[in-house]
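User: I'll paste a sequence; please echo it back and then give the predicted structure.

Assistant: Echoing your sequence first, then the prediction.
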Amino acid sequence: MRICVFLSSADLDDRYTRPAREFAKLIGKGGHTLVWGGSDVGLMKVVADGVQEAGGRLLGVSVGFLAAKARPGAEMVIAKDLAERKRLLLEQADAVVVMVGGTGTLDEATEILELKKHGHTDKPVVLLNTEGFYDGLKEQFRRMEDEGFLPRPLTDLVFFADEPVGVLAYLEESLGVR
């Protein structure tokens, strides 16, 4: 599988890096490819290191103004702007995993869900809800569903997983990979 991971490039503490490292090892040991923002800093670096150390492939999609932070030696595509970057990330992936992050991560997550809501993609999307990070967002999505703002059931759009092993199991089942 080619797994796009949206996540932070910030340096974070162990409660966030441990699950990220664990998921990265699962990607690599499974022989999968990490499709990510290409940065060699923060949580992005933690995941790329883990995938590479466990034998997986890396495909980065960066953007001109962040190219200086791009991971050396990784296969890399440089997009002209953030919109093209998101498009290229999604085109290159079979599935999407959203890990902890800030406004950029939230933007990427809501874009893929909007595309999925309108039937423009059927790629599985998982939010890794590390330390309950996305509990508030999950509640908001449920309210949107309950009050008629989502034309499709929330479970058709996104799967919430509390642990990395649950993420990979869901993706493998969704895509028929063993």
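The beta strands are 2-6, 33-36, 57-63, 75-79, 95-98, 125-128, 159-161. Residues 9 and 43 are 5 Å apart (CA to CA).
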